[in-house]
């Protein structure tokens, strides 16, 4: 238990790997956990032996936040889960093909406008990044977008953020490990219940609105999901319900907002530490794009920008421990026997700092991903892999590319003044790895 209570668990688990090797076991109450710390070992479990390790632990608290396991991220590997993931994956693909590029472009331009309106003042950009990333996923899911002052957007963020933060806290996980504690008052748990019911109220309102309109808008994910569930009713076997649509919507909203926003904050922070690299990216954008805004199809021609994206994903994978997997049958990893029901923690942060794979692993060096730099994107696994591969990988990759390209084409990010401290790069680790808040000036570029 004490091993799991460290304030920065990914760093602590990575340090334990120095002592015990890239695969080791932790025991907590009745639960056995295996921590995997290298990309080869993680790939063996998640990709090569995906069907052995595709499960999720069923627990008292996971059931509460996931509507009884009826969501994607926390649902165990069952026929019902497979049908739901297939349905959501299909809806997401269709909707992305239809509109993703345009939706991100619109949000990137909106973000540009917000930054210009700051007129060179020092600001914390985290909320603006969250609004931009959330609006992408909210547009895909509900077909609407909000501005920063919208009380509904603020309410939704507050409760989704709270749920993620509270669920990651030891006060809550202790209830799973020591069931006796459930008999005692627990204010943190009461807060979690309150936020879950607030979340459900907001989502229910949207879904009811959709249903009252006859949910004919299949260009929007919710419409597509509701239609898919109706179609499913007529097929034999698994039954999917509106509750599955409700929980899948929550999955997409949580997965789609804090992750991308956290990553954008990290990028700005690292660039403040290495301003000359920011200039390199800008010069590349000017030369290749000749003044126009980028398209996702330009990425092969922008290797310096892509090296920046890879390096930030390497150093700060925003879901540093993925979501714990569970062995659904007896199996093995790296030659060790792994019994059924063992919890598997893929330490993506550790794999991205493995000194056997990365030279000078703790330094920010995007150049390692340029030709001759020695770094290989094959050893990067920020989105996990196999049956549980991040469902939003396509959305996230396009967002990271377009948002970063738009921002660095139009702005130079500088410290508020020459005496201001550089952002602290250690971060705060929960389910999502975030940077501590910092202020920055987004100075509009005037030309090459
Ligand atoms: C930089 C951005 C992102 C990163 C680094 C990231 C990373 C991850 C990781 C590591 C996992 C766990 C994989 C595992 O359990 O092995 C995951 C799961 C998931 N992500 Fe993402 N993610 C990002 C953005 C998104 C976006 C934009 C969405 C939604 C559109 C999303 C939706 C999900 C969902 C639904 C799951 C659960 C998948 C499952 O359990 O089958 N993520 N993500």
Any guess at the CATH architecture? Orthogonal Bundle
Q: Give the class from helix and strand content and strand pairing.
A: alpha+beta
Instruction: Name every ligand kind in the structure.
Output: protoporphyrin IX containing FE
CATH superfamily assignment?
Cytochrome P450
Helix-strand sequence:
HEEHHHEHHHHHHHHEEEEHHEEEE
* Morphology: globular
* Largest sheet descriptor: 4 strands, mixed
| Count of beta strands | 11
Q: What's the domain count?
A: 1
Protein name: Steroid 21-hydroxylase
Subcellular location: Endoplasmic reticulum membrane; Microsome membrane
Organism: Takifugu rubripes (Japanese pufferfish)
Main location: endoplasmic reticulum
Structure commentary:
Strand 5 (331-333) and strand 6 form a beta hairpin. Helix 4 packs antiparallel against helix 9, helix 4 packs parallel to helix 14 and helix 5 packs antiparallel against helix 10 (242-273). This protein is 51% helix and 9% strand. The chain is an alpha+beta fold and 448 residues long. The termini are far apart. The protein has one domain (2-444): Cytochrome P450 (Cytochrome p450, Orthogonal Bundle), CATH 1.10.630. A 4-stranded mixed β-sheet has the order 1-2-7-4. The protein is built from 14 helices and 11 strands. The chain is globular and about 60 Å long. The site of protoporphyrin IX containing FE has 27 residues, from helix 10 and helix 14.
């Amino acid at each position: 238990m004490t091993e799991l209570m460290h304030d920065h668990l990914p760093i602590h688990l990575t340090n334990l790997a120095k002592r015990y090797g890239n695969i080791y076991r932790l025991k907590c109450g009745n639960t056995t956990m295996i921590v995997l710390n290298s990309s080869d070992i993680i790939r063996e479990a998640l990709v090569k032996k995906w069907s052995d390790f595709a499960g999720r632990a069923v627990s008292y608290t996971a059931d509460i936040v996931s509507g009884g396991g009826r969501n994607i991220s926390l649902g165990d590997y069952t026929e019902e889960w497979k049908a739901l993931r297939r349905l959501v994956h299909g809806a997401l693909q269709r909707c992305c093909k239809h509109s993703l590029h345009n939706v991100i472009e619109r949000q990137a331009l909106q973000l540009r406008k917000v930054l210009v309106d700051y007129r060179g003042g020092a600001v914390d950009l985290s909320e603006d990044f969250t609004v931009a990333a959330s609006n992408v996923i909210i547009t895909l899911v509900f077909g609407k977008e909000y501005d920063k002052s919208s009380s509904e957007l603020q309410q939704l963020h507050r409760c989704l953020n709270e749920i993620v933060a509270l669920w990651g806290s030891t006060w809550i996980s202790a209830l799973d490990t020591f069931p006796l504690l459930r008999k005692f008052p627990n204010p943190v748990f009461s807060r979690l219940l309150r936020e879950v019911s607030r979340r459900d109220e907001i989502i229910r309102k949207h879904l009811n609105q959709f249903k009252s309109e006859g949910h004919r808008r299949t260009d929007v994910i919710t419409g597509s999901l509701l239609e898919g569930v109706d179609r499913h009713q007529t097929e034999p076997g698994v039954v999917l319900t509106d509750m599955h649509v409700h929980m899948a919507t929550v999955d997409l909203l949580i997965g789609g907002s804090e992750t991308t926003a956290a990553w954008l904050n990290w990028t700005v922070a690292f660039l403040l530490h290495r301003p000359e690299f920011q200039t390199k990216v800008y010069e590349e954008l000017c030369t290749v794009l000749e003044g126009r805004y980028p398209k996702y199809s330009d990425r092969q021609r922008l290797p310096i920008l892509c090296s920046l994206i890879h390096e930030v994903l390497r150093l700060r994978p925003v879901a540093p421990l993925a979501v714990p997997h569970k062995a659904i049958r007896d199996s093995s990893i790296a030659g060790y026997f792994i019994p059924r029901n063992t919890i598997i923690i893929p330490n993506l942060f550790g794999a991205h700092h493995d000194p056997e794979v990365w030279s000078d692993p703790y330094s920010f060096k995007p150049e390692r991903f340029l030709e001759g730099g020695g770094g290989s994107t094959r050893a990067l696994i920020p989105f996990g892999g196999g049956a549980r591969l991040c469902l939003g990988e396509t959305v996230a990759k396009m967002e990271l590319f377009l948002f970063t390209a738009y921002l660095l084409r139009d702005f130079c990010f500088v410290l508020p003044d020459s005496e201001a401290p550089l952002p602290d790069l250690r971060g705060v680790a929960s389910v999502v790895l975030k940077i501590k808040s910092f202020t920055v000036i987004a100075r509009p570029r005037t030309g090459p």
